Amino acid sequence: MxxxxxxxxxxxxxxxxxxxxxxxxxxxxxxxxxxxAASARAKLSxxxxxxxxxxxxxxxxxxxxxLELVALAASRGAYPVVMSAHDSEAVVEQAYALGCADFYAxxxxxxxxxxxxARFRRRRPPPEELFKASFVTQDPQTRAAVLQALNAxxxxxxILILGPSGTGxxxxxxxxxxxxxxxxxxxxxxxxxxxxxxxxxxxxxxRKGAFTGAGDGRKGKLLLADGGTLFLDEIGAMGQAxxxxxxKAIEERSFYPLGCDRPETSxxxxxxxxxxxxxxxxxxxxxxFDFYQRVQGLTVRLKPLRERxxxxxxLIEAFSRGGRRLAFSAEAKAALLSYPWPGNAxxxxxxxxxxxxxxxxxxxxxxxxxxxxSPAAAGPxxxxxxxxxxxxxxxxxAAALLPSSSPDEAAxxxxxxxxxxxxxARALEAFSPEARP
Length: 437
Prior knowledge:
Blueprint: E1 8-12, H1 16-25, E2 30-34, H2 37-46, E3 51-55, H3 64-75, E4 79-84, H4 89-97, E5 102-105, H5 109-122, H6 127-134, H7 140-151, E6 159-162, H8 169-178, E7 186-190, H9 196-204, E8 205-206, E9 218-219, H10 221-224, E10 229-233, H11 240-252, E11 254-255, E12 264-265, E13 269-274, H12 278-283, H13 289-295, E14 298-301, H14 312-320, E15 327-328, H15 330-338, H16 344-358, E16 362-363, H17 365-372, H18 375-399, H19 407-431
Parallel strand pairs: 1-2, 1-3, 3-4, 4-5, 6-13, 6-14, 7-10, 10-13, 15-16
Antiparallel strand pairs: 8-9, 11-12
Helix pairs in contact: 2-3, 14-16, 15-17, 18-19
C-alpha cells in the first residue's frame, strides 16, 4: 500500500500548548504554525497550503479574528478547517458561509486531525474535471444527480441508482466508491446474469463440495467487498428468497457461505441499481418491501441520453481517447444529435468502436445513418444486447466451474447451462424478423 501523501499544513492558533499538540499529530507533514491573524495572512499570501487549521479565538475571544482568515485560505486553494471550543450553531453557520470546508470543537485533537486529513483526501475533484473524465456529462440535472451521490460517498447510507440500461449506473457507482475513502475493493455483480442458485453462490461463496459443481471453495462477492463497496445491478431480477437472505446479511454484517457452519463478517457499503421502477416492483410483489426499504437510502436517477443530447458529442470524444480520432461532418453531427440513442452511453461506445474500425477518420451523414440503423428497431435491439450480455456472462461463470467438477456435478451444471442457452435462443428468436409483426 502506498504511503499517505505528505501535506502542506498551516495551523493558526494563539495557544502554544494547542500548537504543540497539533504538531505531534502532524508529524510526517510539512506544517507551519502562526499565533495571530497577521502572520497567518502573510503565510497564506506567500505560500500554498493543502489544509489550514484556523482557531476562532485568537487572543481576545472574538470569533471574527479567525473567521476573517477563512475566506482568504479558501481563495488561496487551501482546505479551511475551523477550530473552536464553542461550536454554537451560529458560529458554525457563519464559518461555512465564509468558505469553511470542515469544523470541529476542540477536545479530541488527535482524532479530529486524523479524521479531518482523511476527509481532505476524500474530497471530490473540481466539477469540470469530474465531468470530463470520471462521468462525462454536460447536463445540469445529471450533474446534480452525480454530485448528490458524491455528497454521500463517505457515509454508510445505501444508494439506489435508477436509469435505463447504458446510462452509466455502474460508472457512477465506481465514482462514488473512488471518492468514498474506503480501503476495500469495488465489487460489482449483475444479478440478472445468474440463475438463482448460481447467484447465491456468487454472493455468499461456498466451501469445497458444498453443492454440485463446487470442486473448490470460493469467496463470495460479500466477502470480497469487505471494507469496500458492493454494487448490485439489476436487483429486480433477484428472487424473493434471495432478497431475504441478502437483507439478513446486510443488516447483520455476517453471513454463512454455502456448506459452512461458521459465519463470515463483512463491512461493505451497498450501492444498488435497476432499470425498472422499484416502487412498481414492490407493488407487484417482485421486490420485498423490507428489502426495498433497506437499499433505497439515497435514490439517484440518471436520465436517458435522448433527454440530454448535449452529452452525445462529449461522450464520443471521451470514448475516442487513446484510439483513433474521428471527425464528423456537420450533417453527421446533426444526425447524431437527433438520434434517440436507446442504448444510451453503451451504444455511443459501440458506435465509436465501429466508426473507428470502418471509416477513414471522417464520418459523413451516410456513414452515421448506416452504423446507427433504424431508430424504430433500436429499442428492441438494445434490450436484446442487454439480455445477451447478461446471459452470456452467466454461462461464462458456470463454464469456469466445469474443469473441477465430477461427472455427476458437471452433468447438473450443464443442465443449468442448457436452460440458460435455451432462454438466450428464445430471446434471439423473438427478435428475428420472422417472429416480429
